[in-house]
Write a structure and sequence with these properties.
The protein is of the alpha/beta class. The protein has one domain: 3-Layer(aba) Sandwich (Rossmann fold). The chain has seven helices and four strands. A four-stranded parallel beta sheet has the order 2-1-3-4, sandwiched between helices.
Length: about 170
């Protein structure tokens, strides 16, 4: 699973580390997570406010180094989750062959709640597409960069809520 935001120092960095933490705690094996940004500079640490949110929730931001999105990263991923509709459009424009596995983060979180069968391993992308609402600006996760601790907390809460919905529905690796 690949999380994608703008610079890979806020939303996607937090989601990668938080998802890995939650997967380990739930003892869900076979799911790897990564993150990247459609723009920005490679090698930057996680945003301080988002790092503080991760630490407050038992995670560790140490060692995060931002990555720029590449075709290789996209090809390695089975599922790509973007935090803004613009990120999804950027991928579709630059790498159209990868677009079928790209979802908006909140779009997919919404869709998995609509799949009727309970239990782990039932999320099929075709099902999510069938029951999900179309992605759009209304599903964006606000960028917390430079907006303070309160916005970072709200962003982390939104990501945690989405991960709580998505992670248990992933098929085994």
């Amino acid at each position: 699973m690949l999380f994608v935001c703008t610079a890979n120092i806020g939303r996607s960095a937090y989601a990668e580390r938080r998802a890995a933490q939650l997967l380990a705690a739930a003892r869900i094996d076979g799911v790897s997570v990564a993150s990247a940004g459609v723009a920005g500079i490679t090698g930057r640490a996680m945003d301080g406010h988002m790092a503080a949110q991760l630490r407050a929730r038992g995670g560790d931001p140490y060692g995060h180094s931002s990555s720029r999105l590449t075709l290789d990263l996209l090809e390695e991923a089975h599922l790509v989750l973007t935090f803004e509709f613009a990120h999804r459009l950027s991928i579709a424009n630059s790498w159209p062959t990868q677009e079928p596995k790209v979802f908006g983060f909140r779009q997919l979180a919404d869709a998995v709640t609509r799949v009727r069968e309970p239990g782990r391993g039932l999320l099929l992308l075709d099902q999510a597409v069938a029951v999900g609402r179309p992605d759009g600006l209304n599903f964006n996760v606000a960028d917390p960069y430079g907006r303070g601790a309160k916005v970072a907390r709200a962003c982390a809460d939104t990501i945690d809520a989405g991960l709580d919905r998505i992670l248990p529905r992933l098929p085994p690796g």
